[in-house]
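U., I forgot to send this yesterday:
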Amino acid sequence: MKMTIELKIFLFYLFLIVVAETVTSFINASIGLLVHSMLLVSLLTLSALWYENKNISNLFLCLSIAPLIRIFSLALPLQFLPAYTWYLVAGIPMAIAAVTVIKIQGLSLSKVGITFKKPAVQLAVMLTGVPFGMIEYSILKPASIVVGLSAVSVFLVAIGLVVATGFVEELVFRGLFLTDAVKVFGDKIGLITITAVFAALHIGWLSILDVIFVFVIGLFFGFLTLKTGSIAGVSVSHGLNNVMLFIVMPSINLISLLTPR
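Result:
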């Protein structure tokens, strides 16, 4: 494929997002916040200047959600809220941004994958979240996020993970972002570039192996979305992955450590 000017610019911004995430994670979060803020303004400006080509303008408008995600995650005062509300609260700004971009672009719900086409396939895909979560737990080994919480609070955290990190993130990346990228770059390049952005936003976990794992899973989710036209299965799979990663597997590990041998 010919390296078009829009692809070159997109790859340049992808590089800048990687730099911003690296600065945030390894150097200074405040500086990273500043870099992401500059990227946000730059991308919104670029989208406006490229108004003559609607597809390209929409693509860079959508890309602006990537730095916006990190800005919200760094700026929201979650420490003042109950732990079981964190994921739902963090997902609200991202959902608002996604809905706003969808409205601006005039996209229907079906165009961003909010359908239930090929239900047998969707149900099978949903179940993949369990093994994916187990694999990612073996990579990251995160501590449980529900220690000391009541059963009701644990349930609310799980719902927050499914809704905020499952549905909302898949709506943004596989529903909206992938739709825009495919219009400009085609299926293959569109899938790879969007998945690369998705993986780059996981640099904060400080694991190259996890970034690679997330990239592979992102390709899988994107491929299925393109084939089925629905984000239903991948949304639930993504949510279950994180429930396994942050709640189920750490709890099982904790119980095994506390059980007398």
